[in-house]
Structures are given as structure tokens and as C-alpha cells.
Amino acid sequence: MSEIYVTIKGPATVEFEEKRSIFIGNAIHCTTEERAAEFIKEKKRGFSDATHNVWAYYMNGGILARYSDDGEPQGTAGMPTLDAIRKSGACDICVVVTRYFGGILLGAGGLVRAYSKAASDAIAAAGIVTYESFSELKIHCSYADHTRIANELPKFGAIIDETEFGADVTVRFAVKIGLTDAVAKKLSEMTAGRVMPIKLGERFDTDK
Q1: Alpha carbon distances (Å) from 83 to 1, 2, 38, 80, 158
Q2: pLDDT at 2 over 90
Q3: pLDDT at 129
Q4: pTM of the full structure
Q5: Cα–Cα distance measured from residue 200 to residue 198, given in angstroms and rounded to the nearest whole number
Q6: Mean pLDDT within 73-81
Q7: HEC profile for 46-114?
């Protein structure tokens, strides 16, 4: 599991005019080719009267990367859209750029710039977010120990997922992977070895 994961926060749409042609960029977070295909079909249906519905997606660290010019001259639309995703530094993104032709030819360079702008603007509007890898941990402790632990965990930036109060206290929480050993050592020292975290798994999360 890598230590960081960069993607977009959510869906976004942008629109601008270039020499009477209307360009509409739509971007979504997407982790499967099935979802990408579904999104592309949605936009093609929604903009069925458009001249072109160009698309590109970039997923799984670039292992899955596809694009379509949808009738535009080869290399002027789909590839610039894909390049815009790559240059954003984010992954797991699908972008569809719709064009309504306005009657004025843009030329190859103009098309590349317009499709790049539509994709880049849509990604920027969606918002880039960086997630870090966290260890998911669980502890069992006494009520007395829990009072001290509850004050200590925030110092490590811990995310408290769940706290159960019964005969004793069970806490499920997450900390950045690099802090896992330090947290375990601190909790053991604080409780004279009574509390040792159990690792449940890993996930991407953000402490912001």
C-alpha cells in the first residue's frame, strides 16, 4: 500500500466558449472501467445533440488509461484530455469533454488547448485531495486507562472510529502508518503493558 493517494473530491462541471464553440468539461472520481463506461454513456445521452463527446480516464496509478477523440482529428482531443489528468497529479478520474461546434475551425493547436483547458478546469473545480495511508487499530482497556488514552491519542493525530463502553472500553481508531509503532509503544508504557493495539487493517484517509 502506497503512503499517499491523490484524487478528486467529487464531480464537477465547467463550461466556456472558444470561437463560438461551447466546451463542457465533466469530471468524476472513478475506480473501475465499468463506472467510467457508465459515466461516458450518461454524458453521451445527456449531450446527444453535441458535435463531440470526447473522453479519457486514468485509474489504478495509470495501469488503466484510455481515451477517445470521438470524431475530432487524431491526437487533438482525447490525448490532451488524458494528459490533463496525468498532469494534475491525481488518479482514478474520468473526464468527458463535450463540444458544440460554433462554425469556426480551431485548428489542431486550438483543439488541443481547448480540450486540455476543459479537462484541467473540470479537475480543478472538482478539487484535488490527498489521502494518506492509515493503520486501523483496536484496543481494549479499563475505564481508568481510557481516560488517559483519550487524552493521548489526539497527540498522534488519531481518528477515533468507534468507542464501545461495556465491562471495559473498546476503541477503534486509525493513525498514520508511520506512527503505528510509536502509538503502540506509548500506550504500552502508559498502562504498564496492559494495553497493546491490535492491527485490523489499513486504509486511505485524511486528518484534515
Answers
A1: 25, 23, 22, 5, 37
A2: no
A3: 94
A4: 0.80
A5: 6
A6: 97
A7: HCCCCCEEEEEEEEHHHCEEEEECCCCCCCCCHHHHHHHHHHHCCCCEEEEEEEECCCCCCHHHHHHHH
